[in-house]
Design a protein that fits this description.
This protein is mostly helical and 69 residues long. The chain contains five helices and no strands.
Length: 69
């Protein structure tokens, strides 16, 4: 998870194609990996990922927010 987070942060500075949509696709291909990614301690990564996951209806915001608060 830390590697994907670092790649995302590095690539976003370069404005390359590795974006949160690709990260979300990766989490969907790896069983039970979305929640660990959206609860990662790097909030610049985990919160936007959770927002995209919620928009695609992969994540229910209410329980996620309760756990995070």
């Amino acid at each position: 998870m830390s590697c994907i987070c670092e790649i995302y942060k590095t690539e976003i500075k370069k404005e390359n194609s590795f974006n949160l949509s690709r990260v979300l696709d990766i989490t969907q291909s790896i069983k039970d990996s979305l929640i660990p990614f959206t609860t990662w301690n790097d909030y610049d990564f985990s919160i936007p990922l959770a927002v995209i996951a919620g928009k695609r209806e992969f994540l229910n915001f209410e329980p996620w927010l309760i756990d995070r608060i």
